[in-house]
Amino acid sequence: MAGAIVGGGHVRKGRSISAHFHLGPDRFASEAPVPVLTSGRSLDLLTIHKAVAMRHVVKCVAATLMVAAGLAAAGPAVPGSAAGARGIATIDVAASGSPAFDGDAPDPNVVRDGSDYYAFTTGTVLGNHIQALVDTSGSPASGWHSYTGGPYGSTALPVYPSWEAKDTQTSPGVFRWDGKWIMYYDAATVGHLGDTGFNCLSVATVTTLTVGHPVFTDTSSQPLVCQTGLGGAIDPSPFVDPVSGNAYLIWKSNDGTFPDPAIIWSQQLSADGMSLVGSPQQLLAQDSAGFQWESTIENPDMVDVGGTYFLLFSAGIYSSPSYTEAFATCAGPAGPCSQSQATPILTSFGSASGPGGGSLFQDSTGNWMLAYAAWPPQCTDYSCGGARRLFVAPASINAASLPAPVTGIASTSSGDGYWLTDAQGGVTAHGAAQLFGSMAGQALNAPIEHIVPTPDGKGYWLVAADGGTFAFGDAQFRGSMGGQPLNAPVVSMSPTKDGNGYWLVAADGGIFAFGDAQFRGSMGGQPLNAPVVGISSDYATGGYWEVATDGGIFSFGAPFYGSTGNLTLNQPVNGMTGTADDGGYWFVASDGGIFSFGDAGFHGSMGSAYLNAPIMGMAASTGTGGYWLVGADGGIFAFGAPFYGAD
């Protein structure tokens, strides 16, 4: 459902940013007219769900919470859920007795497009430069063959750019991004042999993959990354961060010619994936002293499972039985990463000697699989007739157990305290705020998105992503969307002035009105540039505002004070709140940047500071006119408002 029938309100357009508009440091270059709704393009559900995943950083929580959302009667106070001990992240690989492809397929990277699978590998006699194999059997464990149907010519890169040396192209990493398939790979520069310290990274593209012609084109005139001072750059692998929605490129420096340890790097990719943004960040360095099997580290591959970032890599000498697969866990796509396991996760066995060059992917049923290459027993070199055959094996990946992230903050009516809630419905009270109950320990169908106080501060509601609403204290249950079909997840809630009703808003801008809340209009069914993430009531008019991740404001029966809908933001907006007199509003980005409009005063932000966790929301202090920001880890940042403690 997109919301109630549109009517009774309007979207106001074409205002200028107010003169006192403020942002965090280094976030704004110039003022310009900003429409309420920027030129529309339709958001698909994938975009909406990615934005929601970014907002609450609990991609896995909904899958682990169960039972219908509905009315929760007010009752004895239940303490907020405690932060439990972090569990150990693990990857287990089931050994595969037979190769999926009994030919040479070094450094395999497997991707799926519909029911078809593609394996891109270092070049072989089947395909010079970069090899492409296809599998249309429906199962990646078997059925692989050259796309030409013959014993040669199965190349994914028939033509390479002029700056590359012939037949030095290796280690492809492929993903779909910005409406196209992108392949990163490494090659030596002209005049040099491969693995002599002059390897660089390059990028090739194709709009559509087809089983009969999975061929990429590289139009580059120069390398993407070289790092010749560190022994060259090799083994590129792309990764999309589900929290920020940004893409990153991960690779290794030192092709074996440099005396210092090998290092795995990460750097953000541009919006089109064709260039890099910022500077490279070190993820992991070779540690031969702590892990004796790490004579080098290479072939990185990052995945996010249940909120844990896994960095898979190969270790050792590739032409030896000691070559192996291992992993580290990371704080995020830019690291840092650390190794907790004392031994590798995959070593030589039975029919496979020196397994490595692995990449993780999900099959059509969502199960994790590991593609890797391994020599036959007793022959780990091409001189004895060996080949690095393609193996595809099931992988079991267990995320580290983490405390439920904080997803919302609400302040008391007098501003002398605040409540925090987490994704599992735990509530904690700080300052003079009283605890009226929580959903901690209760089974939910969907994670809790927000906590919303009653106007008198003697109760609050919790709202879940499925629209389930839970009432505590003097908060009255007036209805919910729990158990109803939704076009998009519910992301926020706001009450009426008397507390006898409330509005829910979904990521597509659909509005659901309950109690004495009047429907004044919505963005449900309208084209949006970015998903909606917040709502705030205007008590003076009985209307409300919606805010999108790009800072676009949609005003329904409430005055428009400004937006950032036409600006480029450092990080997406996560939520909003209005001033006590309804003469303005603030909204906050995930990096803590603050945007103030109307009579909302700017008191500071976290926009240029390092954060341990993204900002999830904000609440206003009616007593001082300041505000609080809350991070996913429960950290509180007070600006022009008293600090009452953190989780």
How are the elements arranged and paired?
Blueprint: E1 15-16, E2 33-34, H1 45-56, H2 61-64, E3 90-93, E4 101-104, E5 109-113, E6 116-122, E7 130-135, E8 145-146, E9 170-177, E10 180-188, E11 199-206, E12 233-240, E13 247-253, E14 263-269, E15 276-285, E16 297-305, E17 308-315, E18 324-330, E19 337-338, E20 353-362, E21 368-375, E22 389-398, E23 406-411, E24 417-422, E25 427-431, E26 448-453, E27 459-464, E28 469-473, E29 490-495, E30 501-506, E31 511-515, E32 532-538, E33 543-548, E34 553-556, E35 573-578, E36 584-589, E37 594-598, E38 615-620, E39 627-631, E40 636-639
Antiparallel strand pairs: 1-2, 3-22, 4-22, 5-6, 6-7, 7-8, 9-10, 10-11, 12-13, 13-14, 14-15, 16-17, 17-18, 18-19, 20-21, 21-22, 23-24, 24-25, 26-27, 27-28, 29-30, 30-31, 32-33, 33-34, 35-36, 36-37, 38-39, 39-40
